[in-house]
Structures are given as structure tokens and as C-alpha cells.
Specification:
Layout (H helix, E strand, L loop, with lengths): L6 H4 L1 E4 L5 H16 L8 H16 L3 E8 L3 E14 L9 E12 L8 H15 L4 E4 L6 H9 L13 H9 L3
Parallel strand pairs: 4-5
Antiparallel strand pairs: 1-2, 2-3, 3-4
Helix pairs in contact: 2-3
Bound molecules: coenzyme A (COA).
Length: 180
């Protein structure tokens, strides 16, 4: 277990490499189950392959960065990901304006290594990447039920500015059919 003291000397924050990807796929699977509030289950082979391909593509793309935390003796314990989006302003502009946003996703810290500042250290790296690519804002989504994510993001300077709503197509069709 990493002690709270001198944690910055006890783990390494670095860019992910190809060798890390199998572990990172496991982290993504745990994150999906965590967000869904579901019981642990093993990943289907084709889903594992799909996630590996997605992660692999982020290793070489100039607008993406995949960062991991590694603890000597324990291996990888956390991951975080950012990609930079380019948006054109949609209103008439006197000059050409291009907005760039850093989108943060796929954040996971192994339970035994939480609240030690590891994600803060990963975020520092992701923010440096966003800045190096000229992103003027950072965006992310978290599930409304994910209280620890809300608490951590708030501590890290993020404000909740919107609500993402979701529904099954069939449910909406049923509601609309009621009032034809
Ligand atoms: C959310 C998560 C990434 C935080 O990682 P972490 O390494 O424990 O975070 P840190 O130790 O770097 O803490 C960062 C800040 O958030 C706060 N924080 C972290 N977890 C918290 C919690 N459960 N409740 C309240 N505050 C919390 C810390 O106090 C710290 O603020 P401070 O430095 O001002 O004191 C981690 O709990 C996790 O992986 N959760 C499951 C996956 C998940 O929810 N991912 C986010 C999806 S959007």
C-alpha cells in the first residue's frame, strides 16, 4: 500500500505504452461496471478487442494523450485520458476563430490507491497536454449517481454546467404515442 506521505516519490506518472493496454482495458471494464453499479463480470472477447483498438489509436494520435500511474512493485494503478477537439464558432465572426476544448475521459484509480493524490497528479499531466495543444477549456462527463466523481471534480475546480439526459428510443416513442 502506498503511504500518504511522499506519494509523489512512490508512483510514476507517464504516458501509456502499448504494453500497458491489456491492464488499461481491465480498468475501463471496471469503470463501466462502477458507473453502471453492476457486479464484477468478465469482459467478452470481442469487447476486449474493441477497447484495445480504441486505446491503441490514442497512443499515436497528435490530439490525444493516455496517461497512467505506476507504483513500483504494484504495477499500473490508474489511468486518465484526454483528447483535444476543434470547434468552429457558428456565429458570424469578424475574424476566423477556432475553439479548442480538452475532453477528459476514462479516469480510473484502483480502489487501494485512492485519495493519495494520484488522480490530481494525472490531471496535472492532462492539463499540461491540453495547454500545449491550445485548448482553452476542459470538459468532462460523469454519471449523476457517481458521488465520488462529483466530489473529486469539484475539488479539482470543475463546475457542473449541464445535465445529459438519456432515454430508450422505445420509451420516447411510447410517450409521444400517448398524445397523437
Ligand atoms: C474519482 C477518482 C478518479 C479520484 O481519484 P483519486 O486518486 O482518489 O483522487 P485524488 O486523491 O487525486 O483526489 C483529488 C481531489 O479529489 C478529492 N476526492 C477524491 N476522492 C474523493 C471522494 N471520494 N470524496 C470527496 N473528495 C474526494 C480529494 O480530496 C482531492 O482534493 P484535495 O487535493 O483538494 O484534497 C477515483 O475515486 C476513482 O477512480 N473513482 C472510480 C472511477 C470514477 O468515478 N471515475 C470518474 C469518472 S468521471
Amino acid at each position: 500500500m502506498v503511504s500518504r506521505k511522499n506519494t509523489d516519490e512512490r508512483y510514476v506518472i507517464r504516458e501509456a505504452t502499448e504494453d500497458d493496454l491489456p491492464v488499461l482495458v481491465e480498468f475501463l471494464a471496471k469503470l463501466a461496471l462502477h458507473v453502471a453499479g453492476a457486479q464484477p463480470q468478465s469482459l467478452k472477447e470481442d469487447e476486449r478487442d474493441r477497447l484495445l483498438a480504441v486505446l491503441h489509436s490514442s497512443l499515436t494520435a497528435a490530439n490525444k494523450q493516455l496517461v497512467v500511474a505506476e507504483v513500483p512493485g504494484a504495477g499500473l494503478v490508474a489511468m486518465g485520458y484526454i483528447y483535444v477537439l476543434h470547434n468552429q464558432g457558428i456565429w458570424e465572426q469578424t475574424s476566423h476563430v477556432e475553439y479548442r476544448s480538452g475532453v477528459i475521459d476514462d479516469v480510473w484509480v484502483e480502489p487501494d490507491f485512492r485519495k493519495l493524490g494520484i488522480f490530481r497528479a494525472i490531471l496535472r499531466r492532462l492539463v499540461a497536454f491540453a495547454e500545449s495543444r491550445g485548448a482553452y477549456e476542459l470538459i468532462l462527463e460523469y454519471s449523476a449517481s457517481n458521488k465520488e466523481a462529483k466530489a473529486a471534480w469539484t475539488r479539482l475546480g470543475f463546475k457542473t454546467i449541464g445535465v445529459r439526459a438519456a432515454a430508450f428510443t422505445t420509451s420516447v416513442q411510447e410517450v409521444l404515442a400517448d398524445r397523437q
